[in-house]
Specification:
This protein is mostly helical. It contains 13 helices and five strands. The protein has a three-stranded parallel β-sheet. A two-stranded parallel ribbon has the order 4-5. Bound molecules: tryptophan.
Length: 333
């Protein structure tokens, strides 16, 4: 497509996106929509490495896509598809796994953490998780992969595997670079501002979902943990709660943290500050929630997005797989 560099990223189909996803990641992807050939997919094949309920996976996948679109991933300006709908990801994974030392996979932090917790019964899919991820990326010749801190190690493996394949057979794969976006807001939990806002949080008051009602948002902000002393200052060490709210406000109101501090410094206590922060979040989230509702209710539209994404992705995948099969020596007619 038009000589633009290719950006690709995968998302696990979690049920609910939150403010941290929006301000930390999605906003960065959105900024790339016009300058790059953007491919986004739901990593449903990765999702089954952990125990799951099939009906929930199916529903979460559709819901999640609807939320991504509502957050601004406009399917007219990018491709959105489901990993399991494109033939090639697992085929390429097999070929790449034959070049990947077991030792390297056993040393992955995510694998080590999970095997420490679960032990010998851990499924082997978790060991191969990074190889599938490498296949996702190399299949499409991605130049840039926007990934969070926790996935950087997997991208390193992808680069190693690409180089190994290129050296073993001949130049085939683009060696992808991580894409570090504009410093997105680091959104912390409203209940524990020392930890990142996360979907796995036990206390649901800690996160704001992109589909939360105005009332719920206001309640959660009112209940957000603050710090002692009534002054509104940006100090992440001594005032993590207030600093988190300032960060969030700056991101949703699109002002700098400095401007936010200035705006609020004359307020003598936290209650009016929290009300203004809540208003700004509501102003940002309400249109997203409404759009999400419309999209989620329009099955035909969602299916058409999947269909268009799948067709485009399959065309690219077929081309790459033909090349790969030829290089490794498989008989092709
Ligand atoms: N493992 C990634 C995550 O959990 C999701 C993912 C799968 C991915 N394949 C990918 C991300 C390829 C980037 C590129 O966040």
């Amino acid at each position: 497509m038009s000589g633009k560099k290719i950006v690709l990223t995968g998302m696990q189909p979690t049920g609910k996106l939150h403010l941290g996803n929006l301000l930390g990641a999605i906003n960065n992807w959105r900024r790339m929509l016009d300058g790059y050939d953007c491919l986004f997919f739901l990593a449903d094949q990765h999702a089954i490495t952990m125990p799951h309920i099939p009906a929930e996976l199916r529903k979460n996948t559709a819901d999640c896509v609807a939320q991504y679109i509502a957050c601004g991933l406009d399917p007219a300006r990018c491709k959105i598809f489901l990993q399991s709908q494109v033939i090639g990801h697992t085929e390429l994974m097999w070929i790449l796994s034959c070049l990947t030392p077991i030792g390297q996979l056993e040393r992955m932090t995510q694998f080590k953490d999970k095997s420490k917790k679960i032990g010998e019964s851990l499924c082997s899919g978790l060991l191969f998780y990074p190889v599938l991820m490498a296949a996702d990326i190399l299949l499409y010749g991605a130049d840039f992969v926007p990934v969070g801190e926790d996935q950087k190690q997997h991208l390193e493996v992808t680069r190693d595997i690409a180089q190994k394949f290129n050296n073993t057979y001949s130049e085939t794969f683009t060696v992808p670079e991580p894409h570090i976006g504009q410093a997105g807001a680091r959104v912390m939990s409203l209940q524990n501002p020392l930890a990142k806002m996360s979907k796995s949080e036990k206390n649901q008051n800690g996160l704001i979902g992109v589909a939360d009602s105005d009332d719920l948002i206001r309640k959660k902000i009112a209940a957000a943990v603050t710090d002692s002393g009534g002054t509104i200052e940006f100090d992440e060490v001594n005032k993590p709660g207030i600093s988190n709210l300032l960060n969030i406000y700056a991101a949703v109101a699109e002002v700098s943290v400095g401007e936010a501090v200035e705006q609020f410094s004359s307020l003598g206590n936290y209650a009016p500050f929290k009300r203004i922060v809540a208003d700004a979040i509501v102003a940002k989230i309400a249109p997203i929630r409404e759009k999400y509702g419309e999209i989620a209710g329009d099955r035909e539209y969602l299916l058409s997005v999947f269909r268009a994404g799948r067709e485009d992705a399959q065309r690219r995948a077929n081309k790459m797989m033909a090349k790969v099969y030829r290089k490794v020596g498989f008989v092709i007619e």
